[in-house]
Design goal:
With about 300 residues, chain A is α+β, with helices and mostly antiparallel strands. Chain A has a domain of about 150 residues: Thrombin, subunit H (Beta Barrel). The radius of gyration of chain A is 27 Å and the shape is globular. The chains are: A alpha+beta (about 300), B mainly alpha (about 190).
C-alpha cells in the first residue's frame, strides 16, 4: 500500500532534507559531548541549565505530588509489615541515644567553657535551610537531584546538602527558585575530608559506584576499617566536621572506599547548610573612609612635627 | 448563525491539528518528567525506564512526520539538562537509534504487536550502545554499564503496556486530524 502524500515530484528532496537535518543534529550532539569532555571539572552551559531547572520546577512539582503519595503509602505498608520488630529496635536505639545525649550535653558545656577561656575567633554561624527534592537523576551517568529552593532562599554554589544521617552532596548550579545538588557518588564530586581521631587529609571522589573512594590521602595514612570520615572544611565553603561515612573497603593497593551514612536511594527532605563565605584579606574591598581617616591622622602627625 | 457554527468548527479543527502535531512531543516530555521524578521503593534503587524512548519509537514507526528529528534532538537535550548530565548524551543516543530504526520502519510497522515489540528491542539495544559510546566520549570509561543495561531491560519489558496506551492516543489524534482534513479539504 502506497503511503499517502508520498508521490510528489520533490519527495526525494524532502527525504534528503530529513536525512541532512538528522546528520546535522547528530553532529551537533557529538560536538556538545566533546565540549562536555573538554570542560572537565567545570559544568558547561550553566546558564542554560539554571533556566531549564527553573522552568521545570512547576511541572516537576505536579508530577512529584502523586508519586510521593504512592511512596508514602508504600512506606506505611512496609512499616506496618514489621512494626513490632521495629518498635523493639527503636527502643534499644532510644536507650543508647539517651546515654549519648547526656554525654553530648556535658561535652558541649565543656567546649563552650574552653572556647571562652581560649577566646577562639572565627567560628562560623551556619544557617540550615530545609527543602525537598523535586527531581532526581540516578541513571548510569549522573547522580544529581533538583531542590525546591534557589538563590531567592539563600542557596549558593558549593554549599553542603545533608540529611539526618549525613552528607548527601553539594550544590553545583543555582537558579532563582531551584538548585541542583551533585551527589557524593557522582563522577564529578570531590570533597575534602579528614578522619575521626586523625588529622590526615584526603579527597572523597565519586566514580558513580555505590561507595566513593578516597584519593590523595596525605601523611601516608591508611585508615582502618570502620574509621569515620568527616568533612575537613579545607575548601573554605563546606563546614568542617560534617559526618560523611565510614571506611568499608581497603584493597592491597591501599585503595580506600567509604560507605556513606546517608542512604542516597531514599533521600526526600534535605537540609542545605548555608554559611558566609570567607573572603581572603587580599580580596577584601578597600574602604574609602578608612583611607581618609589615615590621611587626617597623617595631617595631625605632620602638624605635630612642624611645631 | 451558520457562520458562527462554521467558525466554531474551524477552531475545533485547528485545535485538532495542534493536538495531532503536539501530542507525541507532549507525551515524550511527560515521560521525561516521570523519568526524573524522585521515586523510591523500600529504599532500593530501581532503574527508571526510558519513557521518552518508548514515545519516540512508537511515533517514529506509526508516523515519522509526527516525530521529526528536531523533536527527538530536543527531547534528548532536555533529558540531558534535567538530569544534569553531559549535554548531547541522550540527544545523540536517541537520534542514532532513531536514524537506524526509521530506515527499517517498513519491516516493523503494521505487522502486529509482537513484531513491533521486537523492533523496540532493537531500538533499545541501539540506544544503550549509543549511550555507552557517548558516555565514554563525555566521561571516559566510568559508565555504570550494569545500570544502563538494567534500564534498557526494564524499558523493553514495559513497552507493551505503554505501546497500548500510545495506540489509543494515536487513534484519538487521528480523529482530530480527520476533522481538520474534512474541514479544509486537504490531505497530508
Amino acid at each position: 500500500m502506497a503511503k499517502r502524500g508520498s508521490s510528489g515530484p520533490f519527495d526525494w528532496l524532502r527525504g534528503f532534507g530529513t536525512r541532512a537535518s538528522l546528520l546535522l543534529l547528530l553532529l551537533v550532539s557529538l560536538a556538545l559531548l566533546v565540549v562536555s569532555r573538554t570542560s572537565e571539572g567545570e559544568m558547561p552551559f550553566k546558564g542554560l541549565r539554571r533556566v531549564v531547572d527553573d522552568i521545570a520546577k512547576p511541572p516537576m512539582q505536579l508530577i512529584e505530588w502523586p508519586l510521593s503519595g504512592i511512596q508514602k503509602l508504600n512506606e506505611r505498608i512496609a512499616a506496618h509489615w514489621n512494626a513490632s520488630q521495629r518498635v523493639l529496635e527503636l527502643e534499644r536505639e532510644n536507650r543508647t541515644l539517651r546515654q549519648w545525649e547526656s554525654l553530648s550535653h556535658a561535652l558541649h558545656a565543656k567546649i563552650l567553657r574552653y572556647e571562652k577561656l581560649l577566646n577562639i575567633q572565627g567560628e562560623d554561624q551556619i544557617r540550615v535551610l530545609s527543602t525537598r527534592l523535586i527531581s532526581e537523576s540516578r541513571g548510569p551517568f549522573v547522580r544529581s537531584a533538583l531542590l525546591r529552593a534557589g538563590s531567592s532562599s539563600g542557596v549558593a554554589e558549593g554549599q553542603a546538602v545533608v540529611d539526618p544521617d549525613g552528607m548527601v552532596g553539594r550544590i553545583v548550579t543555582v537558579g532563582k527558585y531551584s538548585s541542583r545538588v551533585l551527589m557524593l557518588t557522582d563522577l564529578n564530586s570531590r570533597v575534602p575530608v579528614t578522619f575521626e581521631g586523625n588529622t590526615s587529609r584526603a579527597i572523597l571522589a565519586g566514580d558513580n559506584a555505590k561507595h566513593p573512594k578516597l584519593i590523595y590521602i596525605n601523611n601516608g595514612f591508611v585508615p582502618a576499617i570502620s574509621t569515620r570520615v568527616l568533612t575537613s572544611g579545607d575548601d573554605g565553603i563546606l563546614p568542617s566536621g560534617l559526618m560523611i561515612g565510614k571506611v568499608v573497603e581497603i584493597d592491597e593497593q591501599h585503595n580506600v572506599r567509604v560507605q556513606l551514612f546517608a542512604n542516597l536511594n531514599s533521600v526526600d527532605y534535605v537540609q542545605v547548610l548555608t554559611r558566609p563565605l570567607v573572603i581572603p584579606p587580599e580580596q577584601e574591598p578597600v574602604e574609602s573612609p578608612a583611607a581618609s581617616e589615615v590621611s587626617v591622622h597623617g595631617d595631625h602627625l605632620l602638624q605635630g612635627l612642624s611645631q | 448563525m451558520s457562520s458562527g457554527v462554521t467558525r466554531l468548527s474551524s477552531v475545533a479543527a485547528r485545535a485538532g491539528l495542534i493536538a495531532w502535531i503536539g501530542v507525541p512531543t507532549l507525551v515524550s516530555l511527560i515521560g521525561l518528567l516521570i523519568y526524573v521524578a524522585p521515586f523510591h521503593l523500600l529504599g532500593i534503587l530501581i532503574p527508571m525506564p526510558l519513557f521518552p524512548l518508548m514515545a519516540i519509537f512508537f511515533w517514529a514507526m506509526a508516523r515519522s512526520k509526527m516525530m521529526p528529528p528536531i523533536v527527538v534532538f530536543a527531547i534528548g537535550l532536555i533529558q540531558d539538562l534535567l538530569t544534569g548530565g553531559p549535554l548531547g548524551l541522550w540527544s545523540f543516543s536517541y537520534l542514532f537509534a532513531y536514524a537506524i530504526m526509521t530506515t527499517q520502519s517498513d519491516a516493523f510497522s503494521g505487522r502486529g504487536s509482537s513484531m513491533l515489540w521486537a523492533g523496540f528491542g532493537l531500538m533499545v539495544i541501539l540506544t544503550v550502545f549509543a549511550a555507552a559510546f557517548a558516555g565514554v566520549i563525555a566521561m571516559g570509561w566510568q559508565v555504570d554499564s550494569i545500570h544502563l543495561l538494567a534500564q534498557g531491560m526494564i524499558t523493553f519489558l514495559l513497552y507493551p503496556l505503554f505501546g497500548r496506551f500510545y495506540r489509543r492516543l494515536q487513534r484519538m489524534t487521528q480523529q482530530a486530524r480527520r476533522l481538520y482534513d474534512f474541514h479544509h479539504g486537504s490531505v497530508i
